[in-house]
Design goal:
mainly alpha; 9 helices; globular
Length: 251
Amino acid sequence: MISPDTIRTVIGVTGNGTALVLFLSPVPTFYRIWKKGSVEQYSPVPYVATLLNCMMWVLYGLPLVHPHSMLVITINGTGMAIELTYVTLFLLYSAGAGRRKVLLLLAAEVAFVAGVAALVLNLAHTHERRSMIVGILCVLFGTGMYAAPLSVMKMVIETKSVEYMPLFLSLASLVNGICWTAYALIRFDLYITIPNGLGVLFSVAQLILYAIYYKSTQQIIEARMRKADQVAMTEVVVDGKSNNNNGAGHY
C-alpha cells in the first residue's frame, strides 16, 4: 500500500511542474511586450506580487525555518528567477511614473523580506515559532499573488474585454492551486492550504469572466481591425489624389 507521504511527494513534484508552467505562462505576453517595445495596458502587479510570494516561500522552506520543505524551496527559487526576469522586462519597456512604481515596489519587497529573515532568525528560537511567523506572512502574500489579477478583472468588467487577461495564466493558476491544496491537505499544513485554496477560487472567477467576455472581446478586436483597415484605405486614397495633383502640376 502506498503511504500518504509517498502520495504527498508525488503531488508535490506534480505541483512543482504545474507551478513552473504557471511561472512560464506569461512568456507569450512578454514576447508581445518585447516585440512591440511597450508594456501597453499590461499591469506589473501580478508579477511583482508573485515575486514577493516566491521570496517569502523560499524563506519559509529554509531548514532553519521549516525543515523538510525542499520541494517548496526548489520551485519558489526557480519562480524568483523567472519573475525577476519579467519585472526587469517591465522596467525596460515602461517609462516615467510606471517605471518608478515598479522600482519602488521591487526595492520595498527586497528590503521587507531581508528584514523579516533577520528578525525571525534572530528573535524566534524554535522551528515552530519561525514557521508560524513566516507562514502567516506567506498566507497573506500568497493570497495577494492569487488576488493580484483582481485589478485586471476590474478592467475586464469595465471594458468587456479579456484581451489583457491571459487565459493560459488563469488555467495554470487553477491547476497549480489544486495541486498545492491537495499537497497541504495530506499532511495538513494550514499555511499552504489557505492561499492555494483561495487561489483556486480566484482562478475559477477569472475563467468565468473569460467565458462571459470572450465573445465581446472578439467583436472589439474585429472592430479595431476594421477601423485600422479603413484608416489605411483612406491614407491610400489621399496619397493617390495627392500624387495625381502633383503629376497634373507638371503639365
